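Comment thread on ticket #2218

A.B. wrote:
> Attaching the input chain for the structure job we discussed in standup.
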Amino acid sequence: MTAMYKRILLKLSGEALMGEDSYGINPGVLEFVAGEVKAVVEKGIEIGIVIGAGNIFRGVAGASKGMDRTTADSMGMLATVMNSLALQDALERNGIITRVMSAIPMQSVSEPYIRRRATRHLEKGRVVIFAAGTGNPYFTTDSAAVLRALEIDAEIVIKATKVDGVYDSDPEKNPDAELFDYLTYLEAINRRLEVMDTTALSLCMDNKLPILVLNLWDHDALEKGLLGEKVGTLVSEDPH
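C.D. wrote:
> Ran it. Output below, let me know if you need it in another format.
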């Protein structure tokens, strides 16, 4: 089968890297994610990745406990660099050439984010991991993922989660939760379904950038979604 997309942006949460651990980065999870990404790369799809930092430090949580929000968010952005370097290492051990580009300059461990250079890396078949969010406080890594997706002309954002898509309630608490196959941006925003934060969803809506929410831990779900098979929940302008 031929892939439906030439270039994608994959959004991973920091918590996803913990696996069953309560904190940090689980090596087994890194290997699994690297394997899933490798399968996509081998289909000829160009892939950019944005990772959160919830497994190490979450800016909002720090701010809620009295820390200055700008300082807390800066710490969160630095934590995403650690996650990005860990994933880069796992990918390169699997034979995938990878570049980490950071919105906060730190040339000794990563390249600075330059849009044209990022696009060139992608054209050459390299995976590009975008670290340090947008480089600004008050913006989530969801917003960073959408921003980078638009900048590199990605055709879709893949939101990787631990569940099979977007539900009308928490499927882990409600066994009768309903899975949506399709949603419009406005439905996702108005129903507060936590697909992504409102800023990220609005940015997608304004630029007609679709979002596919799927379970990354369902082996081959990512590959199937990119080949056009029905998986997860598609959020777009008029998905019906």
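A.B. wrote:
> Thanks. Noting for the ticket: The first helix runs from residue 27 to 41.
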